[in-house]
Specification:
Chains A, B, C, D: Catalyzes the hydrolysis of 10-formyltetrahydrofolate (formyl-FH4) to formate and tetrahydrofolate (FH4). The structure is a homotetramer. By secondary structure, chain A is α/β, with parallel strands linked by helices. Helices cover about 35% and strands about 30% of the residues of chain A. Chain A has 2 domains: about 80 residues, ACT domain (Alpha-Beta Plaits), CATH 3.30.70.260; about 190 residues, 3-Layer(aba) Sandwich (Rossmann fold), CATH 3.40.50. Chain A has 8 helices and 13 strands. In chain A, helix 7 packs across helix 8. The radius of gyration of chain A is 21 Å and the shape is globular. The two termini of chain A are about 15 Å apart. The model of chain A has no long low-confidence stretch (mean pLDDT about 90). At the A-B interface, strand 10, strand 11 and strand 13 of A face strand 10, strand 11 and strand 13 of B.
């Protein structure tokens, strides 16, 4: 699997496809997107070896591709399809997203390696350890810098690729968000119109919205404002209480986060400034 | 058809249903909603006469119901099912909502009387008059007060019940919005997150939203913030240009406004403070 | 909470609401539906005691209501809101619906009592028992009558109200289906157009459908054809493999079955011949 | 714009992208799909000239591409983006799809040329001619062969590319369907489960479905069974009458057919046996 981003110009697809064809690479899926506004070109190519020309393996192929990547000044990545991203999950007390991710992982429908679960509460220890996953409790003892340092240490020690905030109710510091840029995913509620701040479901309820939704996005220093990966909504009516809205919202959050993590695992998500390109 | 709003207490449904049963009224549809927070009770009852006891007609029935209405301090309305609301449509240059409303009206699938179309532009005259509807051009000649006075005069002269802003790109003055409170419906785009101000589709495009939608709502002095009647969304991906988003948004706006007007026509929409109760 | 079905005629709502008002019953939610075709009337009333007149409790209220019920030949049911339906779950090897129901039950978002899980396979024992629920393995040893007798015995012994087939891949005999009429719920895939028989996702894939869905329904002797409780769909495109379709279908099945069981728990589902009335 | 279908093998993308790069063709959008089951490869490439090397025009480019097309035994098509497909619309009495297509065409949001409207009824003449489109009435006078011959004659004389059945309630003969294979699009209702034959909405109503939908598909001799282009559904509940279902179904049919025609116009639809590949 090859993903790449570079400045758009004539000949990129020709160069990449010729590179693969010359080595017996059979393209099983290829998607491109050229953003006319930013002038950036995005490509995702899945391919298979058809003969012995690719026996050198992924490392050999990376060396072979380097001149092509350099020629077009590509930001490229060549991975074996069997390589699963290593994810660390952060959670507070809400179990819906965590339980869903663990169940999908356990039943083999989510191709990631879960390296651990970190939490500022003890509540999710039991379900996490039942799945055989290490649980790291990082209580909020007033020293946020220390808590974040511990989190980052676990992230680094486990060589995690992504931090998934599965209803983690702590705002990351600007510093930590900066270190994890493009590698930290969050899920939050979404409404029409939007509601920032505390108790959003209750405020959406007061406003009488007819749709409630959720957004999965990359985390940036600006809370709830990073590049959007996926969104979905559900219809409600005037009889929905704030509690109903919380419950329905939980189901949407669960589905939307699971989809975002799956697409990350499949390397379908590429960053495009403050937007994403999703090759579905 | 009877709709009513009053303070919630024991015995309302009993009183209303006894009133109808005593006069041979057969309930064909009845919906209630008690808002626990505001303590208000909402009810919509559709009924038919089963014998001659109701031969007195709607006017007679209103007189009969008055004591019951007074006893519970109800805000009530009793109408004949054949009474169609009279609507005045305001439009600027965008034809999608207007053409759709006219087509539904012409084919008999929208039970309203269209009293006329007002516009600040000449563009929609041809299609309006082809449908046999009077077209009133109110050019924006700098005197907004005069323009609004003319609009209100047409509204009053045609004895219209509702003003439907079908992509009318003029902001109503606080004064006019106040006069038409609960009688003026608007349609506008909606996004997650929301975007206020100019060129919203372009800004949503810059932000990379994955869903675009539309909201039909009652107009209040606070632009785009009145009680919501209906909302819907459509999914897009990174390839959608701002122009695609405008086009998809138009289709959603058309559908959402048509639904809102239909529900108004069926007396399914009751105001509940800054929210609505929709008896679907 | 009172639910009732009877022949439609003048005065039912008046009688029920008067009955409640006379005993200080405050209606918190009431929904009715009159089916013009069958002439049947359906009602669901949730109410609270406002004073000591209802201190006699549910049993006393049932005695009080009996004359009214008799007068209109009602099929009625009066339950305390705290009474949770007792459900028995049947499952084969697919864990998605079972894991979801257990998680919702454990986190208190599904107001049922799970009396046990029966299965024709051992696979789901571990997750079931981890939740503290008894697991009954009923291996298919060639004697289907004995297997069904054992299942019915567990259903009766646990005094279960409903049997929920959460991907139970055994067809119930006509006899068992008949005994559980209106008390057994199934979930199955749904497509446009429909596909009966084996490997439906693969056949839908061959046909190139653009939507896949799921239906929760009451079980009747005619497999997959009982009264529909809930349906939902998800959009796919030509790139979806049969395996993708199975996976997406699993998510929809999970959501749809959870909704159906919730509505059953809230007594929102009434049977209307081969259809359902769902008071949402 | 180049679309092509051929047997999948190594080097196709490389050959096509090299062909374009060598002539200064800048790829603005490119999508591929390899069907593992059929072994067919599908591609759609939109490109622009960056310099004078493409001044020879579309005809010249076709000649240039022929050797490449021959080498891979491609079924290919190279068109100028400004070439609009010529469509002939067939309609009976239901105006919803026709009015919508005419309005989109008139407002420039549907990039097709409408060559005429044929009908077995006089009803749609007025709206068609108001849009300046010729109306051909082909009354069903008992001689179906003559009627179809007249239809085909209009199709040929107007050099139409596609026949769009916009609620045309005449079944095409096997012979006519065969002549128009891949060039005739139909819209019809869709339900879960499906209902064939007369009065489908009424039968779906009797069955108590919770979703109703529509399918746009290519016409084959087997009625309502050709390759599916697009599908959509809408949610209903038990209160929906058969008439409501017809009305809601009309809205979905309108939207789904408009999308299918737009994708045809954009050359986004390729046939893959009894399925379609839709490059959205």
């Amino acid at each position: 699997m090859l993903t790449l981003v570079c400045e758009d110009r004539v000949g990129i697809v020709a160069a990449v496809s010729r590179f693969l064809a010359d080595r017996g690479g059979f393209i099983t899926d290829s998607q491109q997107y050229a953003d006319r506004e930013s002038g950036r070109f995005f490509m995702r190519v899945a391919f298979e070896a058809t003969d012995s020309r690719m026996d050198g393996g992924t490392e050999w192929l990376r060396t072979e591709f380097t001149p092509t990547g350099d020629r077009f000044a590509m930001d490229w990545r060549l991975t074996d399809i069997g390589e699963r991203p290593r994810i660390l999950i952060a959670v507070s007390k809400g179990s819906h997203c965590l339980a869903d991710l663990l169940h999908r992982w356990q039943t083999g429908t989510l191709a990631v390696d879960i390296m651990g679960v970190v939490s500022n509460h003890p509540d999710m220890r039991r379900i996490t350890e039942w799945h055989g996953i290490p649980y790291h409790e990082l209580p909020p003892n007033g020293d946020k810098a220390a808590q974040e340092a511990a989190l980052l240490d676990i992230f680094d020690r486990t060589r995690s690729d992504y931090l998934v905030l599965a209803r983690y109710m702590q705002v990351l510091s600007e510093e930590l968000a900066g270190k994890l840029i493009g590698r930290c995913i969050n899920i939050h509620h979404s409404f029409l119109p939007g509601f920032k701040g505390a108790r959003p479901y209750h405020r959406a309820h007061e406003r009488g919205v007819k749709l409630i939704g959720a957004t999965a996005h990359f985390v940036t220093a600006d809370l709830d404002e990073g590049p959007i990966i996926e969104q979905a909504v559900e219809r409600i009516d005037h009889r929905a209480t704030a509690e109903d809205m919380v419950r329905i919202g939980r189901d949407i959050e669960t589905q939307v986060l699971a989809r975002a993590v799956r697409w990350i695992a499949d390397r379908r998500v590429l960053l495009n400034g403050c937007k994403t390109v999703i090759f579905r």
